[in-house]
Amino acid sequence: MPSSAPQGDVGSSLNQVISHILHRNESLDTLPTVPSSSSIESTLSSLPTSLFEKGVGTSETTSYLIDKVLPGILQAQNGPRYYGFVTGGVTPAAQLADILSTSYDENVQVNLHQQTASTAIEQRTLELILDLLDIKRSVFMGRTITTGATASNTLGLACARDHLLAQSPHLPKGYSWARDGPPTSPTLPSPPIVILSLHPHFSISKAASLVGLGGGPKVIQTVLSDPEDELSFDLEKLEERLKVEKEVGRGVIVCYGLGEVNTGGFGRNLDKVAELSREYGAWLHVDGAFGGFAGLMPELSEYTKHMDKADSLTLDGHKWLNVPYDCGLFYTRYTSSLTNIFQPPSASAPAYLASNFTATPGLPESSDLPEGTVSAADVPSPLFVNIENSRRFRALPLLASLLSLGKEGYRDIVTRNILFARSVAQWISESKSYELLNPSPSYLSSSGAIIPSNIVLFRATGDSPFPPSDPSASVKLTKAINDSRRMYVSATSWRGNGAVRMAVSDYLTEEGRDLGIVLEVLEQVGKGEEVVRAN
Ligand SMILES: *Cc1c(COP(=O)(O)O)cnc(C)c1O
Question: Could you tell me which residues carry N6-(pyridoxal phosphate)lysine (predicted)?
Answer without folding.
Answer: 319
